[in-house]
Amino acid sequence: MTDELRPDEATAAAPDTPNPGTDAPPDAEQLGLELEQARAQVASLKDELLRGRAELDNQRKRAERDLEAAHKYALERFIHELLPVKDSLDLGLKAAATATDVASLSEGMAMTIKMFDDFFEKLSIKQIHPEGERFDPEFHQAMTMEEAPHVAPGTVTRVMQSGYVLNQRLLRPALVVVAKAADA
After folding, report:
1. The domain 125-184: what is its CATH number?
2. What is the pTM of this model?
3. DSSP state, residue 169
4. Domain with CATH 2.30.22.10 in the chain
5. Nearest CA to 128 among 82, 175, 167, 85?
6. Backbone torsions φ then ψ of 123, nearest 5 degrees
7. In this model, does residue 115 exceed pLDDT 50?
8. Which helix (H) or strand (E) holds 177?
9. 61: Cβ–Cβ under 8 A, 6 or more apart, which residues?
């Protein structure tokens, strides 16, 4: 036996000849079809991307308009609740011009203050009126100190102006007079 190949075996083993049992390279027509499919898929994805961007832009613009409207009309409810108080004050001023009975004017003022208190309650605004309480620098501002013989030092003896809190947040401190220790 020799290591020589017969001519028909040499042709079958040549690397340049395609083997009929294996995958043949795709022809130009199939490559063209695959290219068109890829182009169609790219176009579809590009369209989806553009639509997504447009939707996001529309949502952003809608949110901006809604926010602008909220800012523009935020005071509407506030003013609607405040108008009856203004009307009451106007009526009280007219009544004061012709009134001879101070008690009726006082009663009208008390009703107006009650309207204000109800309005503040709707808004969760609480009044700080700390007379008789211990001085608290977080909520009170001392205007002066005075001797108060029957009151513990550091106690609020008078409130010059009430303070206000909105949802646990200080709007304005109460202006107070605080008892000081008696000089020995």
Report:
1. 2.30.22.10
2. 0.57
3. E
4. 125-184
5. 175
6. -90, 5
7. yes
8. strand 174-180
9. none
How high is the pLDDT of residue 184? 47
Return residue ranges of the chain for CATH 3.90.20.20. Answer: 33-123
What strands lie across the sheet with 156-161, from one edge to the other? 140-147, 174-180, 156-161
Q: What pLDDT was estimated at residue 4?
A: 57
Looking at domain 33-123, its CATH architecture is Alpha-Beta Complex (3.90)
Quick one: DSSP state of residue 56?
H
Token duo for residue 157: 């003896």
Q: Which residue has the tokens 């202006």?
A: 175
Q: How far is CA 103 from the centre of its chain?
A: 47
Residue 6, pLDDT above cutoff 60: no
pLDDT given for residue 42 in this prediction:
96
**Which DSSP state fits 99?**
-
pLDDT digits (tens, 9 = 90+) for 29-65: 899 999 999 999 999 999 999 999 999 999 999 999 9
Q: In angstroms, rounded to a whole number, what is the distance separating the alpha carbons of residues 144 and 158?
A: 10
**Which of the pair, 79 or 137, is modelled with greater confidence?**
137
- Please state, in angstroms and rounded to a whole number, the distance separating the CA atoms of residues 124 and 101: 35
Confidence at residue 2, expressed as pLDDT on a 0 to 100 scale: 52
| 3-class DSSP assignment, residue 123 | coil
